[in-house]
Amino acid sequence: MVYISILLCLILFCAKITLQEPEISIDTCPSVNESKEKEFDCQMSATKERTFICIKPDAVQRGLIGKIIERFEQRGYKLVAMKMVKATKGHLEIHYQELQGKPFFKDLVDYMSSGPVVAMVWEGLDVVKQGRQMLGATNPLNSMPGTIRGDFSIQTGRNIVHGSDSLPSAEREIAHWFKSEELCEWNAATTTWYCMMGDESDSSEDYFVVSTRHNFNPKPHLVTVVKSDTGFGFNVKGQVSEGGQLRSINGELYAPLQHVSAVLRGGAAAKAGLLKGDRILQVNGVDVEGATHKQVVELIKDGGDKLSLVVISVDAVDAERFENGLTEESCASCRQLLKIHFYKCEDNNVFAFLYDYSEKRSLPITIPSYQTITANGERFVAYNVHMAGRHLGSRRYNEFVQLHNLLKHEFIDFDFPKLPSKWPFSLSEQQLDARRRGLESYLEKICAVRVIADSDIMQEFLMEDSLSECAVADVHIRILLPDGNSLLLNIKRHCTAIQLYMATQKRLNMSPEASRYCALFEMTECGFERKLADDEYPHALYIQNYSSAASSCILLRKWIFDNDREIELCERDRLFKELCFWQAVAGVNGGLVSAKEKMFQLKALQSIERADKYLTMVRAMDGYNRIVFPHCGCSSRKDGDIILTVEFSQLTIRACDYEGNLQEEELIFDWSDILEYNVIDNGAIFAFEYARSQKKPKSVKLSTQFAMYMNFCFSRILEERERRAGMNFLKESC
């Protein structure tokens, strides 16, 4: 009996399902709506993800607060809390509790408590992960250009900003820095457009729905829309320039048409029968074939509460075709937030958005030459791409074709110039040069449009990577000499500073003795010259500074502090003496050496034939063989900065305000007072310890982007002083 009962229950259950199937197949709207609502709730919770961002004391002092906030706002994230505070050490020890026990923990807490910080909470889709990517690597030298640390930290130094590394960390840090009532809930003007976008959605695929196709009409037909409480309830996209090539729509040729990209569920347009993908021929009786997007929007706005459209419906495939690629900047995996062109009515009904191609600029990009490369058993031609005369890298023709296709897919409504045509046979020298000129013209035209030039597609093409077939090609780099002339060397793109210096030595035929007292330097944005570390990549610095007035930021300079040792070398090595002479001339003319009333005498001696007399006079002046670092923060000073000066005889710390204006307080140290020195906090802080007259040792910590260069100077001076002491000892022994 039990088995019979179970069998009867199963039969009745199956029968019930069978009876209900027609009802489900006829009306799927409830399940679709329920699915949409669940998807909406899921995506809204993802959009509500929050992260903690803290702008560190060094960035506050450098005035970078606005620029960092701008990066997050441009990306589309929402600021829900912000305050400037001077955090206590106890507060910071709790914040960095996961790092307790690390050797740098105390230094990190001291650094973060040395000045005010700006604590912020940002909200948005995947904001924790994307925020970390926007910040860049902890070590600025490993950060890519375009990241916050990559753009604002020139060398291993201050890393500017902190960001949560996971959702649990973000929740803990937000609760630690902010009370719940300090977090502001608000809606941005574009919330309904951004909040529901998945990784593969376009601008309105989730908020708007594709209307059912029972109103499909492939011929021109009239649709009348009466505005409701939600506006007209549809979205328009299309070209931003007037005219254009004729296109076939349902077998007929038309000038470029604006189209309906989305229809609001239950809105006025949906009730009137307007479909997603409909091409617009007329607006309120006005022909809009070939019209701009702005013209169509203005006609819609001017029509009042009643809108008459003549449209052509297209099939579902064509309706979706023109939506792809336009709004990838809204996705969680977006490449970057590009310029978007919004049009909005007074009733807050957003009609459309599109890339804004109106902002133009002139980039000095050229392809002056090409080279033949052999790699992986293949021989091919690569075209040398230059920016402001600096060799960015080399690309072969098929890489230009790939770039063209990627850009056309991304910016589908832009009228791209033509690439030089393909040719199946070997090209002559004349044909290669014609192709070079054509490619140069192509780059000039597309880079003149800011939104295209700033896109990741374009930036990745210009900043050649190691995976490119042309990565083995040589690049040109220019090195400025003290006399104002320059060397142009061919190197590998990832050549290190020590490798480049060896090539420079060889080109100048420098003696081994002279080469030990010279080095490569970088001219930074503030005009300060810093020595390159042996493992740095000079070409990366060279191309990043293409906007500077100088032809190069890489310099050859002497690297010596001991005047007596310099005199000995100048007597034996003519090339080294010439380098010292021209560098002394530049120092006097630039104000680094104080000539005062002797300037006229020096001008009279300013020729290479009188180099000995000139150098003898300059060596006795204040500032010769002295390095004065830009002002920076100091752990021992609460109100203001300090200026560090190093020379062979002594070390000086001079007080100044936050703008670098000198004040009276000054400390002078003998080098014998220095007990130890090092770089800490990932290169953000230079620290040294000193002791005077058998007193208790004290430490000084300097927050500077030139911490590594300070370390180089300390090591060099102490090495030269040790050598001098050894020489004096030998003389006394004799």
TrEMBL record:
Residues 473-561 form the Ras-associating domain. Residues 1-20 form the signal peptide. This is nucleoside-diphosphate kinase. Belongs to the NDK family. Its EC number is 2.7.4.6. Keywords: Endosome, Kinase, Lipid-binding, Membrane, Signal, Transferase. The active site is at H162 (pros-phosphohistidine intermediate). It comes from the Eukaryota. GO terms for cellular component: early endosome. Gene3D superfamilies: 1.20.80.60, 2.30.42.10, Nucleoside diphosphate kinase-like domain, Phosphatidylinositol 3-kinase Catalytic Subunit, Chain A, domain 1, Phox-like domain. It is a peripheral membrane protein. PROSITE patterns: NDPK (PS00469), NDPK_LIKE (PS51374), PDZ (PS50106), PX (PS50195), RA (PS50200). One of its GO terms (biological process) is signal transduction. Its cofactor is Mg(2+). SMART domains: NDK (SM00562), PDZ (SM00228), PX (SM00312). It comes from Onchocerca flexuosa. InterPro entries: NDK-like_dom, NDK-like_dom_sf, Nucleoside_diP_kinase, Nucleoside_diP_kinase_AS, PDZ, PDZ_sf, PX_dom, PX_dom_sf. It is an enzyme of class 2 (transferase). Transmembrane segments: none annotated. ATP binds at K56, F104, R132, T138, R149, N159. It is found in: Early endosome; Endomembrane system. The keyword Membrane applies. Residues 348-469 form the PX domain.
